Amino acid sequence: AGEHGVFFDGTNGANAAGLTLASSFAMELDATGRLWLTNSDQGAGTSPDCIFWVEDVNGDGDAMDVGESQIFHLTPTGGAVGDSAPSALRFGLDGRLYFVENGHTGFQPKGVYALDDLNGDGFIDPITEVALYYAPPSHPSDGAYYVLHCTDEGHWFLPDLVGRELWRLKDGNGDGVITHAWEVEAAWSPPQSQVWGIDGDGAGGYYLAESSNPDRVIRLEDLDGNGLYEGAEVVALYADNQSSANIAAPRAIAVGEVELPGVVVCTGPGTGACPCANTGSGDQGCENSGGAGAEIAGFGATRVAQDDYRLLVRGLPVLQAGVFLQGALGAPVPFRDGVLCAAPPTTRLETVFSDAAGCARSTVSIAVEGALSPGDQRIYQYWYRDPGGVCASGSNFSSGWLVDWD
Fold it and tell me: What is the pTM of this model?
């Protein structure tokens, strides 16, 4: 209660502009805070197929008032039934608003269109201010296009959900349209995939929400610079057939900044103290029965009063018990199959089981269970059962995570 509200209500008669939002496939926030939406009911209802914007002009927390919403572009329809379905929306680096037309009857060709309000009147003239940026060869009947993403280089990703291709569009000659074969390439061609959402991390990586079988979250990065995503350049970060959590039919994805306040310490390679040469690698602890070490990290704010910090461990033997430990940073001590670095005062925060993906998450209040005060520095490790461990002692430790509390 009090933490959510309706920003724009598109039911009939609800907003001052009288706009109806029947079925919206996409939204885009511009630099001024104005929110742009597609309305795509394909003639099934009484609302027009269009693109419009909503904005909280008076600062009352919604966009329901006079002057806070307006149609920007009415997409062409084929009479009373209509065939238009604007299904994706993005601003390009050139300032134009691009949208994907995914209509089914062929009155207006499927493809990517660019809108440019040249006379500044707030509306798009259907003759002079709309340009067909790219028409797929299979239009109007074949292909399904619901996603559009602009890269940092100004190129476009356009997935075809029917053809199972991730197309990259590049305006190579700068004429504002994609017409040549060399301006279009199949960047990724998986045997089975339906990409419904794309976002980039600003460092060459692109994250895809894939609603297919299995449902997955994919990361693509063109490491060799050949314009294609192949082999190790395609990483499945999540798959519903391998995880205990089922993200059913993911249709969108957004890459944000994750707060990871803390420092990795007490790694297997870093301490050189793993008991039976089971060193592990990278930021992991000593190697366990899974062939790698367990790695710990913290998420949230380090402010004691905020109390939203959580610990996550990965690389564990599946469905095994373990304990989250808190202590002062001490010298590494070989213990069982791992290395203990949490020195007194040591606190057992919580006992949890690893899941089917080999992950464990804390659920208790670390600030309360750890009796924390601002200015404290503490290290966190996870001590877990490993019956088939390399050194045959029955248990092991994750790497360590050092936190300075505010």
Answer: 0.70
Tens digits of per-residue pLDDT, 289-303? 999 999 999 988 899
- In terms of Cα–Cα distance, which of 191, 104, 192 is closest to 141? 104
Per DSSP, 287 falls in state B
Rounded Cα gap, residues 288 and 385, in angstroms? 10
Alpha carbons 47 and 43: distance in angstroms, whole number:
8
Cα distance between residue 398 and residue 324, in whole Å: 10
Rounded to whole angstroms, how far apart are CA atoms 402 and 266? 9
Q: Which two tokens stand for residue 167?
A: 């197309």
Distance CA 58, CA 246 (A): 41
d(CA 259, CA 218): 21
Cα diameter, the chain: 78
261 pLDDT higher than 90: no
Q: How far is CA 79 from CA 84, 107, 197, 272, 391, in A?
A: 11, 10, 31, 75, 75
Q: What integer pLDDT is reported at residue 106 of this predicted model?
A: 55
Pick from 314, 323, 318, 338: which is nearest to 369 by CA?
323
Q: In 233-376, where do the E strands start and end?
A: 234-239, 263-265, 295-299, 310-314, 321-335, 338-353, 360-361
Mean pLDDT of 6-12: 93
Say how far apart CA 52 and CA 19 lie, in whole Å.
9
Distance separating alpha carbons of residues 129 and 265, to the nearest angstrom: 58
Peptide bond into 214 cis (omega under 30): yes
**How far is Cα 177 from Cα 158, in angstroms, rounded to an integer?**
15
Please name which of 58, 75, 63 lies closest in space to residue 35, comparing C-alpha atoms.
63
Q: Are 99 and 86 in contact, with CB atoms under 8 Å apart?
A: yes
pLDDT in tens, 337-382: 999 999 999 999 999 999 988 999 999 999 999 999 999 999 999 9
